[in-house]
Each structure stands twice: as structure tokens, then as C-alpha cells.
Amino acid sequence: MPQLRVALAQVNPIVGNVAHNSALILEHCRAAHEAGAHIVLFPEMVLTGYPIEDLAMRASFVAASRRAADELAERLAAEKMGDLVAVVGFLDQVPGVPSGFGIPKNAPQNSVAVMHGGEIVARQAKHHLWNYGVGDEARNFVPGSTINVVQVHGVDVAIAICEDLWRDGPSAAARAAEAALLLVPNGSPYEANKDDVRFDLCARRAVEGECALAYVNMVGGQDELVFDGDSLVVDAEGRLLARAAQFSEELLFVDLELPAATDTMPSTDATFSGLHIERTIVSAEPVAPYEPLGSPVATPLDDLEEIYRALVVGLRDYVEKNEFRSVLLGLSGGIDSTLCGAIAVDALGAERVFGVSNPSAYSTEHSRTDAEELARRTGLDLRTVAIAPMVDAFQDSLSLSGLAEENLQSRVRAVVWMGLSNAEGHLVLACGNKSELATGYSTIYGDAVGGYAPIKDVRKTLVWELARWRNAYAEAHGEVPPIPENAISKPPSAELRPGQLDTDSLPPYEILDAILDAYVERDLGAAAVVAEGFDATTVEHVVTLVDRAEYKRRQYPPGPKVTARNFGRDRRVPITNRWREHLG
Amino acid sequence: MPQLRVALAQVNPIVGNVAHNSALILEHCRAAHEAGAHIVLFPEMVLTGYPIEDLAMRASFVAASRRAADELAERLAAEKMGDLVAVVGFLDQVPGVPSGFGIPKNAPQNSVAVMHGGEIVARQAKHHLWNYGVGDEARNFVPGSTINVVQVHGVDVAIAICEDLWRDGPSAAARAAEAALLLVPNGSPYEANKDDVRFDLCARRAVEGECALAYVNMVGGQDELVFDGDSLVVDAEGRLLARAAQFSEELLFVDLELPAATDTMPSTDATFSGLHIERTIVSAEPVAPYEPLGSPVATPLDDLEEIYRALVVGLRDYVEKNEFRSVLLGLSGGIDSTLCGAIAVDALGAERVFGVSNPSAYSTEHSRTDAEELARRTGLDLRTVAIAPMVDAFQDSLSLSGLAEENLQSRVRAVVWMGLSNAEGHLVLACGNKSELATGYSTIYGDAVGGYAPIKDVRKTLVWELARWRNAYAEAHGEVPPIPENAISKPPSAELRPGQLDTDSLPPYEILDAILDAYVERDLGAAAVVAEGFDATTVEHVVTLVDRAEYKRRQYPPGPKVTARNFGRDRRVPITNRWREHLG
After folding, report:
1. Residue of A417, A547, A577 to mutate when probing chain B, most B C-beta within 10 A
2. Which residues in chain A touch residue B418, judged by CB atoms under 8 angstroms apart?
3. Interface predicted TM-score of the whole assembly (ipTM), two decimals
4. Which residues bind L-glutamine (chains A, B) (predicted)?
5. What is the C-alpha to C-alpha distance for residues B148 and B164, in angstroms, rounded to an integer?
6. pTM of the entire structure?
7. Please, what sign has the CA dihedral across residues B97, B99, B102, B105?
8. Mind listing the domains of chain B with CATH numbers?
9. Do B105 and A523 touch (CB under 8 A)?
């Protein structure tokens, strides 16, 4: 049977930076070509970055993407790589640019270009647009109408873009078209506890399509999404042949032996499920037999390590892609800001992390000593700015009490952080966790201030788990555990009045998080949550807090998606929303 | 020909408050019935409010809407209004609740219920989902598959929901079904300078469908949208028969003489464009001849009055629907906060509007006197809190200079406003205009603080026009012009350093607004903007400011949509976006 060497380029593009992404693609084509690959496959929309949202509908951006794709194909030939088949995701446009109701402006398409011999020899647009959770593709793209089959060295190769793989159809289409290999470019964000759904799906589709399947995903953070890579290849029996490590760039090679294309060319007007099957012959001649190489098969990470890595990569790329030099965060000695400090040091290195301790009249002694201990262990920069003089200056005019006085302290801290940020150029981190965000247990324009929120999608009980995991990981690797034990073990407090504890306002976090899981993650109604065995009064309390906190959530900085229902792009409800769940 | 009295209920529902909306509908049914109407028509999704976004996919909410619709039909019969045909928009669900990829969770539909005799006798779901600009319906709803024709007193009546009217099809369907009247329930947000596109469209569709057409729209504010009503009725020749006033609730009656339904019932399996035509006979007997009443025909408002009213209604409903008692805003004496103060007084009454003057070391004398003059003219409450002591307290620790020092003053003001808001329960208003928002000319966590931004979609040059219009309107009505002349005529300044003027950082507003119109409203690329005759350096400057200000815009409070490209729901681009327009 004919052989093919396929390279999967698991790379980290930057949304909007077409020149950077072109250079990134070219560099990986060179490496693939040098290593003898016949096909190199890139992630979905690698040339523009992903997701581009309403940028899709800017005529100047569509034109830039199309021009860059043509130039890339020419450049490959100019650099004597014209024989390499490069499959590159980009932003394309329906020919003739139709307009009208129901067609996104400028008729953009989420497409792949098949480059060979200095030109784009085939292009295929995504059929099934991703239109739920964090995906908004029905708003931004025109679905494709073709299935492309490209013959490469005597092997028929078909394409399915991301979401297309999840629907019934593409593998059946590959089978109908008698393709021996299905290429699947993806922009598939990380989500915790997916088990191994990607491998399971790839294996099933390969068996259904009677073809090998190469799945390539991007890596890196993009605003609220983190892409984890996990690119993989299975054979037509669904057996795993190769798998890339998560969260890092990699050029994964696999050698395949595949059935030869049938001699007879099917009719040019073949269709499948309303999609036109387009065939292109790049080369009918099989490659000379060669000795296959072995491929790496990475083991997926354990749950806690996977989440921690996602948080680190999300923060790192938000900082790098937005060209910040450093981050600054308020360090209260509490577990949330302490974990954020550890994540920041892992993401950027200690020399780019600046902590501020802002003791007030109500701060405990350990709030300062725990922050100092974190700085000592990790090497981050820590300074102290006491807030009593500023708080007093406000109180001389305003004489606030109760909640207004509590919030004042939090806001004075935020003004200090933002002043230092403006003066020294740091990105401010907001250190709230998902349980707080869900219930509105934060001060707007106070601790909610910042440009990025590293743990906004991490529930409080998971914050503790991750802290313990990080310390255990350090110990297992002979390093100093970064997180002071006292930050993990002490009872959580906002320290905005004497003796305050979170449990004064909220149920214990084990119960709160379980109710939030039912009400938010699983979308159960309040009555259904009670039916799971929770106390009705507690459920009513939590549900009311969640329903009323939407405005605060909207104003919170972006942070990396970890769960199926993050409070960014996943779950969009009106601010003015008087829907109240009833328990009856 | 048979007669029908149709009532169009132009009402203001509240998103999520199903009980309130049910009562509102019932009250209007009573009034319509009492006035002898045979049909009463309500806006799109009036029972749930609109738009409901991801609430559509909560099973408990779908169930509440369906239950409320059934109860409403029963209630109408119980109150002896069973003979009235009530056409009520609600959140429905595909029978059997199919699930799978491509189907929104719980299979929700944007539907209307036709109520008669104590039950729902027909239901029709929207065919063409609104999926551009501020609409996200493809994410939230399953499109409908039926066209319903209901015979009422011997007249065949068809239905087209909102967006369905804009596509080719529904009027042709009405014609194919030989309906004599097309009912069109809408949730159509206000947008300036639409000319009279609604009337033109209704007239064209009526002629195409050879049927009279009754178009009902909601009124009121919902987060970033304002619905302006403008309900209207045209006859089969496209002549305007009745029109409701904009921005206020109204029950509009019209008497129609319409062709009788043909005796022969078309086949039960008729289809049009893939939609199944379902027929229901409510009553075949024409009503006894009666003397028709005349109908009001309101004149649409002039452009400036229309925009001003939209801003007033948007603010009023955000305050009322979120149950705030009052608003608080910083009054700098500049035109933006002054106009916001005037709008707030018009929306809520002076006794619910609280202004704060926060003079600093760099404030001019007129910043205080102009604010006092506004308070004197309108009667709003004004207090003064000087910020120098608080600024000094921060500077003792931080010694900030330059932009950091400027921002510090703005943020200290915001802490004062939020302290007063927390202590006294006011909603804080952010007073920035669209030109500032576009270019990022504001301080995040400073003047950008607040729960609602009344003029965030109003460009600076329009701010001045609206201020002049408001004063002229007062003079024409023998009232005191609310806005001090000096606030309109003085050159704009942030007053954050000595002698500062906006033109130190930005082009003159006439030029800036024209460039923003091309780059933002019309989506032109930078090179195309230059080709319109603007200076290339100025365009590059403005485009760079706009591209880099996305994070600030995201953090800005919501405000009423006025233009085709507001910076809320209309235009969604990534924060991490390195796309840079090139002039070459």
C-alpha cells in the first residue's frame, strides 16, 4: 500500500496578527519538509488566529487573509517546497460575495486551503458552524457546500473542519468518497473533565469512515479560551498511532500506509448529503517505499495538572499576546491571591510578577506574613502600601459605614494597584474565584479590578485542591512548595471588618459549590436542585445571589475557561432579568 | 366584505418577569375586548420579555412560559373573553424536545400562541432567526416549520414574526394561503436615521401579499436596547390606516373590511417554501355589520427628538426594571455629564437625580458654577466633595505623575460616587460619549464607573446637537432651558492637568466623528477611510486608538443603542486582537 508521512503542526497563532501567523506556518512547513513529510496539517484558521468573532465581517481583514494565503502558497514554491501539501486554515469568502438577509456581511467562510506547487489547489469551508457555548460561528460565517478529496501520492485524502467531525456526516462522506485519510483541523478549547472524548470520537469516526484520521488542534490562550493541543492520529481500525503533548507547540510526525486511490475517477457531479464532492489530483504517483519512523504517543495529563497548566498558559498568552511586560496583583495572604501569585510566577517567571500587600485596620497579622512567605518562596517582588491614610481621607468627607465602608477599603486598594499599573506598566490581575463570581461576593471596582482574572472559572473548593496539588508537585520534583501552608488551611475571610468570615455571608464552600454545580453547570431549575437533597432555604439564598449578580459578572475581567459553563462567553443572560426561580 | 376590529397592544414587558407580563397582557385584553375588538395582537415574546438570550435554554424558564401561556388562555375564557382572539408572543418548545448537535438545549422556539375559547388553538414559531447586529437568535432558538392561517369571523389571517417579514417569503406565503390579513408581532429595537423603513417595508409586503398588514412592536428599554413602538396598519394597497406614537404604551385600534375566506378548505398537506401550511377555523361567521371608528395616525418624531426620547426611555427603564430608586452622577460642568443630568431629570424627575461636583486642584471655576447652574435650572440635588485630601493621601504613598496622576484624580472621584451609591442606594451613571469610548479617551475605574451609560452610543458632535435641541424644545414650550449655555459653548476638557484640552490628545471632534463614522459605523478599512479624503496620519492615529481600546469598551457599563454599530451587542471583536489596519 502507498506510504505517506504526515506532519501535524500543533501551533499557537495570534488572533489578527496575520504576518506573525504566516511566519509561524512557514517555519513549520520548513521543518516538516526537511523531515520528509508529504503533507503538513495546521489547525483551524491558523492564518488569522481563532476565534476572530466580528473581525470576520471586516472586508479589509478578509482581504488580508486571502492575500496572505496566496502569498504563502507562492512562498512555499519559491523556497522549493512546492511538492509539500500544506493544509492551512484561513478566513475565506464565498466567490462573488453574495449579500442579503441571513448572509453575514462580506460572506466570510471558515476554510482550509490546500497548497501545492505554488498555488491553492483546493479549498473547503466548514459545513457545520459551531453555534453554542463559546462558539458564535453562525453569526460570522457562511457554511461550506463542498467536500474536497485531494489525491496525494496516490492516496485520496478528505477534510473535515472541527465541528464537522462531531456531526454525523463527514466520516460517512469520506467513506462515500472512498478517502483513505481524513484530515481534521481544529480550534477546540480546553475544558476540564472531558475524559478522553477527543480520542473516542476520532476512533469512532475513523472506523465509520474506514479511513485513518489526523486531528490537529492549536495550543495557547486567546482571551477567555485556552487551546490544549492534544493532536492525534488513529488508523482505520481506530487505534492510536501518535499523540502530541498538551499545551505546548509540537510538530508531530506519523508514517501511514494507506489504501491506494481507485483508478476510476468518480463523476464530477457527485454529492453527499447535499454537499458537492470535489476531487483534485495533486499527485497520482506513490512515493518510493521507505522505512517508517516511530511516533510519540503522549499520555494525557491528570485532571489537576491539566487544569493548572491551562491556567498558566491562559495567563501567559494573555500577557504576551497583549504585549505586557509584567503583572501586578494584590496579595492578601488568602488562598485565591496566593494561588494566582503562584500561577503568575509559573507563567512568567518571578521577575515579572509584582505583589502588593495593602494592610488595613482590619487586616490580620497573617495576611501580611503569608504574603511575605509566598514572596520568599517564589521570589516575586512584594511591596507594602498601607491603606489607612487613604481610607481616612475618604471617611473625613463621607463617613461611610457597613457595606459601603467595607467596599471603600477594597476600592482604595484597587486605586493603588491601578496607579502602580499606570506608572510602571503592569497588567493588574483580579484574583476572584468562580464561587465568588457566581454569588457576587466581590467589590465592583475593588477586588474585581484588573485586566485578567486567572481563576475566574475555578470554584473555591478546586482552588484549594490546585494549591495542594501545586505544592505536592513541587515536593515530588525536589522544589520548594510555593504556597504557604497557612494560606491553604486558614478559614477564608475578606478581612473588611473585624473577625469577618466568608461563612457569615455564604454557605460552607463544599455546599455552595455543589449547589452552583447543579444550578449553573447543569442548568437545573431551583426546584430540581432542592430535589437533589439540598436545604431549600440555602438553595433559595444561593439562587437569588446568582440571579442578581449578572452585572458584576459582566464587569469582571476575562479569564481562562475551565468548565462547561464559564461566566464569559458560555452563559449569556440579560442584566435586566427579573426571572426568579421558584421552589414550588 | 366581512369586518374585523383589530387591537394592537404596544406594550412594555420586562424580561424574565412572566407574572408581570401576564398581568400586562390580561389588562390589555380586557381593554381591547371592552372596546369591541375581535383580535388583539401583542409584540414578539411579550410573555417572557425580549431578548431573553441564554435564558431561552433553561428548562425551568421554558416550562414557566408555556405554563403561563396556557393559564392566560384559560383566564381569558374564565373572564368571558373566550371569543376574543389573542395573539401572544411567548417562549415555546419543539414538541418531543429533540436534542443533538445543532439544536439549542431544550429546543426552544420564538413563537406566538393564538388563544381562543380558553385554549391555544394555533402556534407558529419564527422561521428566519435574527442573527446579526444585536440579534443572536440562531444560538437560542429552533426555527419554525409551519405557516398558520386562522379563520376569524370568516376572514383568513396569517402570521409573520418580526424578522420573517424582512425576508422574501411570508407575504408570498400569505398570498399562497389566500390570507386577507397578515399579523406581524415584533421586537424591533430603535435605531436612528432608519428613515421610514418600517412603513415602506410593511406597505411593500402588503402589496406583495395582497393583504392588509398589522405590525405591532414593543416599547421600552431592555439593557442596551430601546424599543420605540411605532406600531402601524396598512391596507392591501399599502396605504397607512393607523399608527401608534413612538416610545409610549398604546392600544391602537383599527377597523378593517377584508375579503371573505374562500369556502373551500385547501388540502391539509399544503406547503410553501418547505413550510407546512396549517389551517384553523376559529369562527366562519362574519360579524354583524357595524360602524367603523377612525384610527389615530401618529407622525414619526424628528431625528433629534427621537434620539433624545430613546435615551430618556432607555435610562428610565433600566432604572425601573432593575428597581433602583435614584441615580447619581458626577457633574463636571462639561457637556457630557450636563446632558446626562438633563436626560436623567426628564427620565426620573429631579427628586430622583443626585449630582456630585468633585473639584480638584486642576478644576476651573466654571466646572463648579456650570454644575450649579444645571442644578438650579433642573432642580436636581447637587453636593460638592472636594477630592484634594484623598488625592494627597494617595500621593503621599505613591508619588504618581503624568497619566497615572491624571487617572488617580478620576478614580478618586469614582470611589466617592460608589461610596455614596452603596450608602444611599443610587445607580451610578457613567457619562462618556461614543467618541470617547471609541478612542479609549476615558479612565477605566474612573469616569467609566457606573451601572448605566446614557450616552455611550452618542458621538460627541451629536451630544452638542442634542443639548441645543433640548434647550430649544424647552424654549418652544415656555420652559426653562435645562442646559447652561456655557456648558455647550466652552471647549471640551478633562481638566486633569492645568490648561488641558481634548484637542491635545484627539483631532477636533468634527473630524474625529467623521473618521469614526467611516471606520466603525461603515466598517471601512483604514486605506478606504483615507481614500475618502482624510489626512492619513490622522486616520492612522484614530484607527490605532480604536483598535487598542476594546478592553476599555468591554468594561464600560451598558447604554442605549442609537446607531447601527453600538459598542455593546453590535460589534464584537476579540480583546487580544493584533489585527492592525494598514494604509498601504
Report:
1. A577
2. 407, 411, 444-445
3. 0.95
4. 132, 188, 194
5. 13
6. 0.96
7. positive
8. 3-281 (3.60.110.10), 304-554 (3.40.50.620)
9. yes
